């Protein structure tokens, strides 16, 4: 008995896999569309870049000072409030500038109405007290209730250190607040302890007192140009106040210091330094010539900002092109003088020259350019506005800011 075999034939369609892939694609597309159908679609939100945290923030949170008004100087409301609150809590009530102060000639400051809207009432009370203390430096804040108190004076006009608050009758010291008990003897003991601790800190950490307010200052790194909270500029090496920073660190100044000098020089080293400054006069002239050439390049390339319609990128290209043009000759000239300075240092090495003399001789052109630029920038810095004394007690906070650049 034979089994009949049925022959089954399959007709293979050309490119049959394409139809299967298309079917899978349609099925996947339908599934995704069905899943996303119930999700609410949101329109894109306009954002800006905060100048403090550098994050993209919605325009509804944008805030800027009314005296500034520049979109590029805008910050998010949280960052601007934190920036102003920290300034007030540090007592810097005369430095409530725009976060980008100096950029594009900006010298905007926060108005009093803006501060009342942005800052909490407790911070504004501190602001009021600090402003009054700026106007009258003899005022002292009571450590108990925080009220400003005026000290009593004797017939000669001297201040009586023992103060009593008129609000809460708390006793404290005019100079040391509540750091010690009442009485002149406790004040004298505490003063001796402060002097002893300052001497220990100077020996242990290498601190030096500010020449004006005598606050101990520690230098961690950087140049010798120091800036104190009492608004005085002074030199770390010689400890003197600086009326003109650029001239003090200029190699032409025989009584000046080096801006990156690590430690004081001996008397013999000072004489050798004066000799190095005299013999480095050609290098100083070279540094001045390089600065003049750089300004000539800037004047010659003034057409570049116009090509970019005087936008910010145009000024960056303009300045960068001048720097590139002067980079090669400046590097060659500085390298050539470095070799000459090293040779001069070898000649005076038997006379007691040290590493600081070598550092000065090698970097004379660069030090000249840096000192001149620092002096120019110091003179072009915007003047700080005088502190504002409120004429009335703290008013209630307003519901809306008066004339603020805050987007709805």
Question: If you had to describe this structure to a student in words, what would you say it looks like?
Answer:
This protein is mainly alpha-helical and 408 residues long. Among the domains are: 90 residues, Zinc/RING finger domain, C3HC4 (zinc finger) (Herpes Virus-1, 2-Layer Sandwich); 64 residues, no CATH class; 119 residues, no CATH class. It has twelve helices and twelve strands. The strands form six sheets. It has a two-stranded antiparallel ribbon with strand order 1-2. Strands 3-4 form a two-stranded antiparallel ribbon. A two-stranded antiparallel ribbon has the order 5-6. Helix 8 runs antiparallel to helix 10.
Keywords:
disordered N terminus, mainly alpha, 408 residues, 12 helices, two-stranded antiparallel sheet, disordered C terminus, 12 strands, Herpes Virus-1, 7% strand, two-stranded antiparallel ribbon, flat, 45% helix
Please write out the topology.
Blueprint: H1 16-36, E1 47-49, E2 56-58, E3 62-63, E4 75-76, H2 77-89, H3 112-118, H4 121-135, E5 140-141, E6 148-149, E7 162-164, E8 171-173, H5 184-205, E9 208-209, E10 216-217, E11 225-227, E12 233-235, H6 245-248, H7 267-279, H8 281-300, H9 303-307, H10 312-348, H11 355-362, H12 364-380
Antiparallel strand pairs: 1-2, 3-4, 5-6, 7-8, 9-10, 11-12
């Amino acid at each position: 008995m034979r089994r009949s075999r049925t022959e089954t034939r399959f007709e293979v369609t050309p490119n049959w896999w394409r139809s299967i892939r298309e079917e899978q694609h349609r099925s996947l597309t339908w599934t995704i569309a069905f899943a996303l159908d119930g999700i609410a679609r949101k329109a894109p939100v306009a954002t800006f870049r905060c100048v403090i945290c550098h994050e993209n923030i919605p325009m509804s949170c944008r805030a800027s000072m009314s005296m500034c008004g520049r979109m590029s100087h805008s910050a998010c409301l949280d960052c601007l409030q934190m920036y102003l609150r920290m300034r007030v809590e540090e007592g810097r009530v005369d430095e409530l500038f725009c976060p980008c102060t100096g950029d594009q000639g900006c010298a905007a400051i926060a108005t009093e109405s803006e501060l009342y809207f942005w800052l909490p009432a407790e911070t504004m009370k501190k602001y009021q007290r600090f402003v009054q203390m700026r106007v009258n430096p003899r005022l002292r804040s009571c450590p108990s209730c925080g009220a400003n108190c005026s000290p009593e004076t004797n017939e000669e006009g001297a201040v009586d250190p023992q103060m009593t608050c008129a609000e809460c009758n708390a006793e404290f010291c005019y100079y040391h607040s509540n750091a010690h008990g009442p009485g002149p003897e406790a004040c004298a003991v505490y003063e001796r302890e402060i002097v002893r601790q300052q001497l220990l800190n100077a020996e242990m950490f290498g601190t030096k007192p500010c020449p004006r307010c005598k606050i101990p200052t520690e230098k961690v790194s950087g140049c010798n140009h120091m800036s104190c909270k009492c608004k005085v500029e002074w030199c770390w090496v010689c400890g003197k106040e600086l009326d003109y920073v650029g001239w003090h660190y200029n190699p032409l100044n025989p009584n000046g210091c080096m801006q990156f000098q690590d430690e004081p020089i001996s008397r013999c080293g000072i004489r050798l330094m004066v000799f190095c400054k005299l013999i480095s006069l050609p290098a100083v002239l070279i540094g001045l010539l390089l600065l003049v050439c750089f300004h000539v390049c800037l004047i010659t390339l003034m057409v570049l900002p116009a090509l970019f319609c005087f936008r910010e990128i145009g000024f960056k290209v303009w300045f960068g092109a001048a720097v590139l043009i002067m980079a090669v000759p400046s590097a060659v000239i500085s390298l050539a003088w470095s070799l000459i300075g090293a040779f001069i240092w070898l000649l005076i090495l038997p006379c007691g020259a040290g590493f600081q003399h070598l550092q000065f001789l090698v970097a004379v052109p660069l030090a000249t350019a840096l000192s001149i630029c620092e002096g120019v920038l110091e003179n072009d810095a915007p003047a700080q506005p005088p502190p504002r004394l409120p004429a009335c007690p703290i008013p209630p906070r307003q519901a809306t800011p008066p004339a603020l650049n805050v987007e709805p």
